[in-house]
Amino acid sequence: MLSIYWKEVNSFFSSLIAYMVIAVFLIMTGLFMWVFTETNILDYNYATLEQLFSIAPLVFLFLIPAVTMSTFAEENQKGTIEFLSTKPITDFQIVMGKYLANFTLVLFALLPTLIYYYSVHALGSPPGNLDSGGILGSYIGLTLLAAVFVAIGMWSSSITNNQIVAFIVGAFLCFFFHWAFSFLAKLPIFTGSLDSFINKLGINYHYSSISRGVLDTRDIVYFISMITVFMLATLTSLSWRKA
Amino acid sequence: MSLSVQSITKEYGTQKAVNDLSFNVSGGTIMGFLGPNGAGKSTTMKMVSCYISPTSGTAEVCGYDIHKNPLDVRKHIGYLPENNPLYLDMYVKEYLQFVAGIHRINKKANRVSDLIEMTGLGKEQHKLIGALSKGYRQRVGLAQAMIHNPEVLILDEPTSGLDMNQLVDIRNLITELGKEKTVILSTHIMQEVQAMCDRVIIINNGSLIADDPIEKLADRISGEQIITINLLNNDVSLAVLENIPGVTQVKNTKDGIVISSDAKSDIRKNVFEQAVASGWVIIEMKKEEISVEDVFQKLTKETTNA
Question: Is the pTM of this model over 0.80?
Fold first, then answer.
C-alpha cells in the first residue's frame, strides 16, 4: 500500500498536476478573500475566514474530480490495471494507497491557507480577535468534505476508462451530494414532511454544522459513512473486471 | 508440478473463450502456447495470473489455488501482459524500484541493479519509460515480471514487435530463464517455438488440440517424408526410384526430382545407393522438414472446419 501511495504522490509532484492544483486553489480562494470587492475581508470589517470556507467547497468541486479523474480511468485505458492487479497486493491496498495519495495532494493545497488564518489573526483589532474554535471546526469540516469528494471522484474514475467522463461524473456527484439536497428540501411538496431529512442527506448541512465549531458525532459519522460507501463502490467496480 | 490447469472454462455471454482446458507444466520447462488470434491464449494466461476469474474450473500455481490463495499465486508468478502496459511517465529505475516495493523485496537497490544488468537496460536506466523504444520497453516489462524471482513466468507475446537483434536477445534471455523456471509464452511466430520451447500446447476456439514435446509434434501429421534430389542430369528414368520400399510417388519437377514416401525410416540412404547403382551423380539432396508451422496450420484448420 505504501509503495502505491509513494508512487502516486511522486507522480503528482514530479508532474505539473500538484503545483497547478495548489496554485489554482490558492489563487481562487486568495482572490475571493483579499481582492474581489464584494467579498474581500479588508472591506468586510469583521475578522473572519468565512469567505474561505464558503468558496473552498466550490473550488474543490472542480479541482478534486480533476485530481482523481486519472486514478483508475488512466490505468484502465492503458492496461496498467492488469499489471497492478496481478501483483501480490489486494484491491483494498490499491484503492487505499491511491486514496491517501489523492487526499495528501488536497491537504497540500489546504495547508498554505493557514497563512490566511495568521493574517486575519494579526489584522484583528485587537490582534487575535477572531473565533479560533469556529475556524478549527471549519478546517475539520473542509478536510472531511474534501475526503468525501476524493472518494466520489475515485469511484467515478473507476467506472470508466475515459478521464473526461470520470471528471464530469465526479464533478456532478460532488455538486449533487453537496448542494442538491439542500435545494431539493426546499421544494414545496417536501415542506413540513421530509424536508429536514432530505436536507440532512447533503454534505452542505453537515459541513455548516461542523463549521460552527461543534464537533457533533452525527456529522462525523455522516462523513465517514459517505467515504466508506464510495470506497466500497470503488472496490466493487474494480472487482467487476474479473467477471 | 509448478503449474496445473484443471478444466478451466471462461464464458463471455454465450461465447466460450476457453472451453474445459487442462494441462500441467513442471519446472524447468519452456512451454509454447500457440493458437490463432482469439483462440483463448491471453484469456487463459489472465485467468492463471488471477486477473480474471474463470467461469468454472481452477488452476494451481506451485500448489496454490487461484480461487483460494490468489495472493500466494501472484507471489509465485511473473506475468508480462499482452501489449506490455507500463507507466510511461516513470523512470526505468524508479519503476523497477516501485515494483520491488510492491513485492516487498529486501535490498531493493541490489535486486533492481541485478535485473537492469540481466536485461541489458544499463544505458537506459535513467530514461523515462515513455522515451524508450519498443524493444527496451519489452525488457522493462520482462524485468518487472522477474523482479521477485518467481518460479513461474507467464509471458503473453513477449517478442511481438521486436526487430531481429532484439528478438535474439530476448530469446536468449528466455532460454536462460527456462533452465530453472517454468516459462509459458504465447506467440504467433513459429520459428520462435522451434527455437526456444521444450513443449507446445496448441489451442483453437478455446479447446486443447495438441499437447506434445516439440519433437513429437511433427508426428501428429501423417508420417510422410518428402525428399528432393537434383542430379547432374535430371533426365533419367524414374522407375528405379519407385522400386525403393516405401516410396509412394516420384515426380520430376523444375526444382528437382521429388520423392514422397511413407516409410518409417529415413529413405535417403536407399536413394543414394540406388543413384550410385544407376551411375547418377547427385549434386543436391534435401529432406523437407515438417515445421511447427505446418502442424499448426493443419491442426487449427481441422478443428475450425469441424
Answer: yes
